[in-house]
Write a structure and sequence with these properties.
The complex is a heterodimer. By secondary structure, chain A is an alpha/beta fold. Chain A has helices at 5-18, 31-36, 53-67, 77-91, 102-108, 124-128, 179-190, and strands at residues 70-74, 96-98, 115-117, 132-135, 139-141, 146-150, 165-171, 175-176, 197-201, 206-207, 215-216, 223-229. The N and C termini of chain B lie far apart (57 Å). Classes of the chains: A alpha/beta, B alpha/beta.
Chain lengths: 230, 468
């Protein structure tokens, strides 16, 4: 089946050649900013983020409250394990999903629950019946209270969205100020070989489709827990 | 009169007469206004952000060929297939072909207005495919066999009672008046569908030329599941949605969230660079990008209104529009309602049948002010009125405006008209608003002011005329 590639491109070129449009009227002079285009300019307009790490952690924690993300800062991996064991017991987890990842492996050491590992492929129903998915992440974004995940850092596409409770482990060194920095991190780490999936998760799944009333856990996780390791 | 125009008249009259409905829509919007304003205030400079967003869109739209080719090259190198569809039919045929060739039976969809535009569900269902909308609002309107009421809030016109009744009837669930319980009923139904479906169809909010990615914004997680579990992913993409750089998303994602739903960020903003890559544990084996023109190039050729291709479909202009809030989404009779729909529909579907939509505006400019990418919406509505008048002139309108212009240009005629007015106004008041009233289009719902016994001119002459 041949598409209309040549025709559509022809129409676009004809439209643009014959009818130039004036630049938009703007009150600020950012023609250069848009031309420069590496994201620095955008920081001047977007929500402000503190300069120091404690300020950024504080902002992330504050936004998490609004998003109903359960944010915990723990001093050691042992404390993180204790926290996870407590959550698992309280929530009655019987099976969890996870993937091969340095911090995730350390977190799950000694946990006595069956684990579905995703990194080498998995049965969808097996993962769907897990009560929680435990993953790492690329970075945490202070500006938005977001978590950037990828195939590599979150065990594929589904692990962080299919089970009803998503637990993320991160280190303070992974806290970045804003989205621009998160994209810069991804570009630096992956160069031209991006994973096929890269996502910002900002709070547990939600909907307002019925009378604009907020309900958590529409299709994805009802709970989102972030454990930040000092 | 065209049927579209007559339908608009009938439906808008019906919806505006329903006070309860209008109050319900207002109530639904009130929470949005509050959250939107709070989030706008968090921006260091919302107006500056709008300027920058408009600049980036200007750059992208005015070099559309370059950025589309860059996008195509990059995402093709990652194993995706890009199909350039000139119109709705070509897009539908391609998707049907992919479905047939892969023996697809069940299709799960996440929210995509572009698929509404090309009437994809009907085409798929007619050929026996099971099609399920996974977005809660879309699922509700699909069960009701309705179109979405609003670009972003598809089922905002329905009460929980109506939804409960619908679920009882269609799904055999128990009655409830709790939105949470209703949401969980839909969640349980969809869980099975994600696992069974062979094909997932999504829309696309942005495409990134630099890295060859598509970006999808959603709150529910349904789009992520739709694009993770089935073995084929088809993404519909309007040609206008391409952005030059990956970092552009760091501006557009929060702006879309704030303008669209009053959020800091939408819950999931996901970038896909192709289908599953070697060594990755999950994701579809195939990714098909259906790049849709469907007369967007007509809009592109109109330099005056080209900026309306920058639309990110946030729905902010609908939410503030006094017309939309009163006539509702269905009166428009087209996929894209509200101010942006009234601007682009005449281009996408023909001026002749859709020019009446440009009159569905008070020209208050609230839409233009709300637009995160600074589309000059209310002026475009005026331009559409002008274009409509030019392309199919109304003889009566021509004569009356000719007469008006003649009268205003000649003081003697004007004075004569005022004298006639004073004589005939008492007669008009007898038939006010009835079929005999020549001014009934105006007086049917408004009062025509009584002419003063003396004009300003006459008074001036009498009282001040002698003084220096």
């Amino acid at each position: 089946m041949t598409g209309g590639r040549a025709i559509i491109l022809g129409r676009i070129r004809e439209a643009l050649r014959n009818n130039p449009a004036p630049r938009p009227h703007t009150s600020h002079s950012q023609s250069e900013a848009a031309a420069d285009h590496n994201g620095h300019a955008q920081r001047e307009w977007l929500p402000k983020v503190g300069e120091t790490l404690p300020e950024r952690i504080e902002l992330f924690a504050k936004i998490s409250v609004g998003l109903t993300t359960e944010f915990h800062q723990v001093p050691t991996i042992t404390a993180a394990r204790d926290l996870l064991t407590k959550i698992a017991a309280e929530s009655g987890w019987k099976k969890i999903g996870s993937h091969s990842h340095h911090d995730v492996d350390a977190l799950l050491e000694g946990i006595e629950l069956p684990i579905v590992r995703t990194e080498k492929g998995y049965a969808i129903d097996d993962l769907e019946s897990c009560e929680a998915g435990v993953t790492g992440c690329e970075v945490l974004v202070a500006q938005t209270g977001g978590i950037m995940v990828s195939v590599e850092s979150a065990g594929g596409r589904a692990l962080s969205v299919l089970p009803p409770h998503h637990v993320v482990i991160a280190r303070t060194s992974q806290m970045v100020p804003d989205l621009t920095a998160a994209f810069a991190h991804a570009k630096k780490k992956y160069g031209k070989q991006f994973p096929s999936f890269l996502s910002f998760i900002t709070g547990p799944s939600r909907t307002g489709d019925i009378e604009r009333i907020l309900v958590l856990g529409a299709h994805g996780p009802k709970r989102l827990t972030v454990i930040l390791l000092d | 009169m065209a049927t579209q125009s007559a339908d608009f008249q009938t439906l808008s009259r019906r919806y505006t007469a329903d006070k309860g409905f209008r109050a319900f829509i207002q109530k639904g919007m009130s929470g949005y206004y509050k959250k939107r304003d709070l989030n706008k205030a968090n921006f260091q400079d919302w107006q500056g952000a709008r300027d920058l967003a408009a600049e980036i869109k200007y750059e992208a739209i005015n070099h559309l060929d370059k950025y589309l080719l860059e996008f195509e090259e990059k995402i093709t190198a990652r194993g995706a297939k890009v199909f350039w569809a000139q119109n709705a039919e070509a897009a539908r045929d391609y998707i049907l072909k992919v479905a047939r060739e892969n023996n697809v039976q069940t299709i799960i969809k996440s929210k995509t207005m572009t698929s509404e535009e090309i009437h994809l569900n009907d085409a798929l269902e007619e050929r026996g495919f099971g099609v399920f909308e996974s977005d809660l609002g879309e699922y509700i309107v699909q069960l009701r066999k309705e179109a979405p009421f609003h670009l972003v809030f598809p089922a905002m016109h329905l009460t929980r009672g109506q939804i409960s009744d619908l679920f009882q009837k269609e799904l055999g669930s128990e009655a409830t008046d709790e939105p949470e319980k209703l949401t969980m009923i839909a969640r349980d139904v969809m869980r099975r569908k994600y696992c069974e479906a062979d094909m997932g169809i999504s829309g696309t909010n942005f495409a990134v030329a630099e890295t060859g990615m598509i970006s999808i914004t959603e709150n529910e997680g349904n789009a992520r599941l739709t694009t993770s579990l089935p073995k084929i992913h088809v993404a519909l993409l309007g040609i206008e949605k391409v952005l030059p750089k990956l970092e552009d998303l760091s501006l557009f994602l929060p702006m879309l969230a704030t303008a669209g739903a009053g959020q800091t960020m939408t819950c999931y903003n996901t970038m896909y660079a192709g289908p599953r890559q070697p060594g990755e544990p999950d994701g579809p084996e195939q990714l098909h990008i259906v790049l849709l023109d469907n007369r967007r190039t007509e809009l592109l050729a109109d330099a005056e209104q080209r900026d309306s291709l920058g639309c990110i479909r946030c729905g902010a202009c609908l939410n503030v529009c006094p017309i939309f809030k009163n006539v509702g989404g269905y009166s428009y009779g087209t996929t894209y309602g509200g101010p942006i729909g009234s601007v682009i529909t005449p281009h996408l579907r023909g001026l002749k049948d859709w020019k009446h939509l440009s009159a569905a505006s008070s020209l208050c400019g609230a839409c233009t002010e709300a637009c995160p990418v600074k589309i000059d919406l209310h002026h475009h509505l005026l331009q559409n009125r002008r274009n409509g008048a030019k392309s199919s002139p109304n003889p009566l309108e021509k004569i009356s405006f000719g007469g008006f212009s003649l009268m205003m240009g000649h003081p003697a005629l004007y004075r004569l008209a005022v004298i006639f007015g004073r004589i005939f106004q008492p007669l008009q008041s007898v038939v006010n608003g009835t079929i005999l009233d020549p001014l009934r289009a105006w007086t049917g719902s408004r009062k025509f002011p009584t002419l003063a016994p003396q004009s300003f001119h006459q008074q001036w002459k009498k009282d001040r005329g002698g003084k220096k």
